[in-house]
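Lecture 7 notes. Example A: sequence first, then its structure tokens.
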Amino acid sequence: MAARTISLKEIERARAHRWRTARARQITSERGALRLISELGFVLLMGISGTELPSVHAAAGGEWVWWDWKQTLPERKACYYAKVLRRRGTFIAWEWFPPFFAAYADPRPYWRLYRDGVLDRAEKQILDLLADQGQLMTREIRLAFGPRSKENTRRVKSILVDLQTRFLIAAAGGTTAGWSHHRWDLVERLAPAESLAAASRLSREQARRKIVAQFISNVVATTAADIAWLFAWDRAEVDRAVGELVAGRKIRAAAAPELGGDVLVPAPWPRAARGSGERGSRGK
């Protein structure tokens, strides 16, 4: 039984503060973007249509200042950036890298994943290129992969996304000249050694519990079904994580009639902080 009723207005007010979409808290600088990523732990580059999720794009008020940050932040290793959630660009604070790596990555080295039939030959070919030659731009990988053709271009782009979602490669910088071109590196070489070590000490179940708790704190109100969809996890595993978090009083259920039923919310309910936020102290 839900303990209390939450109105849509309460949810929207809490989200506007948490996500920095309230005008007084919108971000205007790279420093502000990094603050947002640190506060939330993980945040999308751009929102997903039809789904309420925090994003750097929304926090910047739609202004195009955010476009370069997906290159400049990973360039200086200020945070992790790769296509993770629903295969979309996702910023992850280094503090939150260990749970994500533990939740998604296979600890076996990639050559063993290939030997065990988990990776195909084309995926291994791209990983071999990065292992042998170091960081490479997308176009350099595409040219080394095979003859120039639309088919090969599509194939390389698809493989690069697949390897990102499995935490095998990530962006190491790049350029937005013309449009956007990432430079790639192996995650095992890009991530700090202490972050990889911290990930090895987490079980997949522990990692997912941490991520679910933080996600509910970030979005303020959600459902187990939405969590399973966003993170591409088995619903039974999500229900188990939710049950443990409820038992530990990290989250709780609330009635949200305007959203169609019960939702999961943080415990305690977040109280919007007072103050002007980012626009009162812009980073340069």
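Example B, a different protein, same format:
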Amino acid sequence: MRGVNSGTVRLAVFAGLMLAGADGARAESGGLFKNLFGGGGGDGGGSGGGGMMAPRAQDPDDVYCPQIFVPDGGAAIQAFAGGAGDRSRLRYQIVFARLSRECKARSDGSVGVRVGVELRALLGPSGTSGRFDAPVTFAIKYNEKPVMARTHRVAVPVPAGTAQGEASVIENDLIVPADKAIGYDIEVSLAGQAARPKPAARRKPAPSEAATAGSSEDPVPGQ
């Protein structure tokens, strides 16, 4: 392309992919991605950014099965080459591509919930191909209080010569107690951990300092 900086083109392409991934995650009821759970269609509802569609029961068991909820701040993971927030130095971003859930009544009145997530890794202007780790947390909440939660670490590969890659994970064993089987929430989020700074190396004291230090006493807990 004449007169167009390649870095600018890549940034523009990435911005489009980022919007498609972060805001375009599809939430499907019934079958996980229409085949992994053995069939079923999607409801076309949106997810992420704190929005939730009105829950509806699913045939044939008529089980309460709410739309998957993605909390604010839990829809994406970003990694930068340098200062965070500089879009030109973004290495990669991981977002939700598709979400699906299936709810089934159990003989004791509880509900078994299966949740499937498809992740998409998008390379930024400073990114290179590789495998990128994403912690995905699945949770059941009732009245905004956690009932149970599980976290999976998912590796999302981006092959050489491409700008994005996908991976999926299924959580099969979320159980909603019988007394909370109506009105619970299904929550899925991406959560990154900030790198912890390494502790400063301890300097060995000089002989004169060691003599002084040896005479000091640390306080005894409780005194």
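Note on Example B: The helical segments are 6-23, 207-214. Residues 181 and 188 are 18 Å apart (CA to CA).
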